[in-house]
Amino acid sequence: MTGFVVRRIGHTLLVLFCVATVSFFIVRLAGDPVQQMLPPEATAEQEATLRASLGFDRPLPEQYVSYMTGLLSLDFGQSVFFHRPAFEVIMERLPLTVDLAVAALAFTLVVSIPAGIVAAVKRGSATDTSVMASVLVGQSTPAFWVGILLILIFAVNLQWLPASGTGSPAHLVLPAVTLGLYSAAMIARLLRSSLIDVLGEDYIRTARAKGLSGFRAVTSHGLRNASLPVVTVVGLEVGSLLGGAILTEQVFSWPGIGRLTVEAITYRDYPLMQATVLFLAAVFVVVNLIVDLSYALLDPRVRLS
Questions:
Q1: Residue 214: pLDDT over 70
Q2: CA torsion, ordered 24, 31, 33, 91, to nearest 10 deg
């Protein structure tokens, strides 16, 4: 078990190293970052000042070593637009993104788990067909369109919920539903498929033969054994909810990390762009690490292997 954990942590660190290296060189291969950050009418003196402040006047190997060394102390560089450390700007926006991701994940699980269980137990029935039709709609509808539609219905026409901004739990409802709808549909479909396979196993029939109710057989025996692929997808979706909410945050003017990434691109703030890319990659790989380690708790075969 210790070797398994060490290997997974090693893979995580290797991925982060590769992401940091690639993001560092892509910014420089795209052209002179200083010329892209400044307006066309900028003078040569302004270019030289900015280049020196960002350290772009030093040899490339020296810049790379300095950048990687700074990452060890969480120094992502100085934001050109905000005139503050990039890590500090990200940490300032992180709580709002976490709030949105947690709300979206809660909506995802509350909707997907009951839907997947009902569809699997009622396989082939009208209920199963209705659930699967809803899942298909949820997976095929673009998030930005869902967000605009929810704003028109619940904020503009009915005026039940705010259309944008932050400040109260009500502001979370529409963006959380928008962000979690696709994930809920995908997890419900996967859980249904996994449960259908598990419910045909001998130990489920044995449990039913011993007098266990259908509900207890599904929840006590079937659900846990069908959860491994679901845990994988939920883990990936947590990373997506934390790092992939760019469209949702833009539609609802939610000032999280997704919107911060768009602002960094808009303002050509390359140090902040590198920081957000690396931070989002770190979220994905850390969540994947947690999912890998959770396998050992859910399936004894993983511990034995």
A1: no
A2: -40
Q: How many CB atoms lie within 10 A of CB 205?
A: 12
Q: What one-letter code names the amino acid at 278?
A: L
Indicate the domain borders of the chain.
Answer: 99-268
Dihedral sign (CA 215, 216, 219, 222)? negative
For residue 227, the number of C-alpha atoms closer than 13 Å in the C-beta half-sphere is 19
| 79 touches 260 (CB < 8 A) | no
Q: What is the pTM of this model?
A: 0.81
Nearest alpha carbon to residue 113 among 214, 207, 222: 222
Angle at which helix 170-199 crosses helix 126-140, to 10 degrees, equals 130
CB neighbour list of residue 128: distance below 8 Å, 6 or more residues apart: 118, 119, 122, 192
Q: State the pLDDT at residue 173.
A: 92
Residues counted in the chain: 305
Structure tokens at 295: 């396998």
Q: What tokens does 190 get?
A: 């996967």
The CATH class that applies to domain 99-268 reads mainly alpha
